[in-house]
Design goal:
single chain, 253 residues, alpha/beta, Rossmann fold, 7-stranded parallel sheet, 8 helices, 45% helix, 15% strand, binds nicotinamide-adenine-dinucleotide, cyclopentanol dehydrogenase activity, Cyclopentanol dehydrogenase, oxidoreductase
């Protein structure tokens, strides 16, 4: 049994919720009637965004709280806040991420640390922080946002490939380890999505990726959020240790 199947209001914590995909995930979970803890680096912006999300939803409740996913103390504070505010935590969406564009030779140790700390270590710290709450509630659901760059190479973004590949591996390892506690762990691996992250990518590179994508476009963040919502909620109650690739067919070629 998972806590996500119970009659009480289910509660999710979304990281990087001020970003394109995090915002879309927050709206999708609110539409399902979940309470959402809206987290990102800037606490005031999270609280303001939570007010906005609440006005846009007729069902769920949103509250904002700062979280730096690379900091274990920050995770302690936000899980304590979620427990105080809602009494329990059923869903974690490890979405926060940052891109590094350099290849194997030009990637600096600083870029490596920034990208791996956020995407890989942050995902581990998040799973580690919420597990006690979920265990005591009898279960829960974790969705880690990886990337198709965890599956294929690109000729650049070496640290990002390394970190997103690790997210896929950690997802499977955690799914096996946490299954006895009723905690499901899955990943979503998007292809190119139109957000602030890709707005910083050179247009030429974007056009090349889109030309190689069978559906011939980038995804809208809502299309990624739909996959996250499916895995997060009770409809995926027998799904764990797997990933949904949301890439318009890019990796099918
Ligand atoms: N946009 C894409 O094409 C794409 C493709 C594949 C995977 N992804 C992944 O999707 C996720 C969301 O990306 P997005 O496109 O919405 O990017 P985005 O830049 O719009 O949002 C990322 C958010 O993460 C937050 N963040 C960064 N470092 C953080 C930290 N240490 N602690 C807490 N929050 C932090 C940022 O403040 C930002 O709000 C990321 O993990 C990204 O790697 C994106």
């Amino acid at each position: 049994m998972t806590a996500a199947s119970g009659p009480r209001t289910r509660v999710a914590l979304v990281t990087g919720a001020l970003g394109g995909i995090g915002g879309a995930v927050t709206r999708a979970l609110l539409d399902q009637g979940l309470g959402v803890v809206v987290t990102d680096l800037d606490g005031d912006a999270c609280r303001a965004a939570a007010e906005g999300f609440k006005h846009g939803s007729t069902t769920g409740t949103a509250v904002g709280h700062p979280l730096d996913v690379t900091d274990p103390d920050s995770w302690q504070r936000v899980t304590r806040f979620a427990r105080r505010r809602f009494g329990h935590l059923d869903v974690l969406v490890n979405n926060a991420g940052t891109l590094g564009i350099h290849g194997l030779e030009s990637c600096t140790p600083q870029e490596w640390d920034r990208v791996v700390d956020t995407c890989q270590r942050g995902t581990w710290l998040g799973m580690r922080a919420v597990t006690p709450c979920m265990r005591s509630a009898g279960g829960g659901s974790i969705v880690n946002v990886s990337s198709i760059y965890g599956l294929v190479g690109s000729g650049a973004a070496f640290a990002y490939h390394a970190a997103k590949g690790a997210v896929r591996a950690m997802t499977r390892a955690a799914a096996v380890e946490l299954a006895p506690a009723g905690i499901r762990v899955n990943a979503v691996s998007p292809g190119m999505v139109s957000t602030a992250m890709t707005a910083a990518v050179p247009q030429e590179f974007m056009s090349e990726v889109i030309a190689r994508t069978p559906l011939r476009r980038a995804a809208h963040p809502d299309e990624v959020a739909a996959a996250v919502r499916f895995l997060a909620c009770g409809t995926a109650s027998f799904v764990t240790g797997t990933e949904l690739v949301v890439d318009g067919g890019f990796t099918a070629l």
